[in-house]
Amino acid sequence: MLVIRAIEPRDLDDALSIINDAARAYRGVIPEDRWHEPYMSAHELSQEIANGVAFWVAEDEGRVLGVMGLQDKDDVTLIRHAYVATNTQRAGIGSRLLHHVLEMTDKPVLVGTWADALWAIDFYRRNGFTVVSKGHKDWLLRTYWSIPDRQIETSVVLADARWMAGRHTE
Question: Are 20 and 45 in contact (CB under 8 A)?
Fold first, then answer.
């Protein structure tokens, strides 16, 4: 039975393994100058946690199958680092994780991903998110994320219905 719970120290190695395995799908899709190996190091994961990203894991019979972060940023919440083990993708685990973390906030929710990662964009669209305009995207990425200009150029932002219905209409 799939259980979604807050990440614990014992889960960190499994979470990193899932992140780095699933992120291999981005190789050759995102700009070469933005790719690095590993995609996320243990130090980077620790920094994300220190910076307020609350991670959740999907676990089945003691095995971590997915990980997703949630970060409170002023008047919005960000979905961060959403990955499912490659051998269990397309089984609803990502959607379950996403809906779980969406219930954790009453703020509008945003997620950034690579513009050429069509599978990720499709996932969020299937789960009720909308791609925002380029003008909003650039402003949102500069306001709520700490990423270089090159990443801003090659990314998209998707917003949930709360953001789309608010003062942020397109």
Answer: no
pLDDT grade, residue 167 (50/70/90)? low
pLDDT reported for residue 170 = 45
Q: Report the number of distinct structural domains present in the chain.
A: 1
At 146, which amino acid appears? S
Structure tokens at 24: 């291999």
Burial of 140 (0-12, 13-18, 19+ CB in 10 A): buried
| Strands, E assignment, the chain | 2-6, 53-60, 63-73, 76-84, 109-114, 130-131, 155-159
Residues making up the chain, counted from first to last: 170
CATH number where 96 lies: 3.40.630.30
In-domain check, residue 67: yes
Residue 170 is assigned to a structural domain of this protein: no
Mean pLDDT score of the chain: 93
Instruction: Give the residue numbers spanning the domain of 66.
Output: 2-165
Residue indicated by tokens 């499709």? 122
Instruction: Decide: residue 62, CB within 10 A, 0-12 exposed, 13-18 middle, 19+ buried.
Output: exposed
Residue 76 C-alpha from the chain's centroid: 14
- SS3 of residue 29 by DSSP: coil
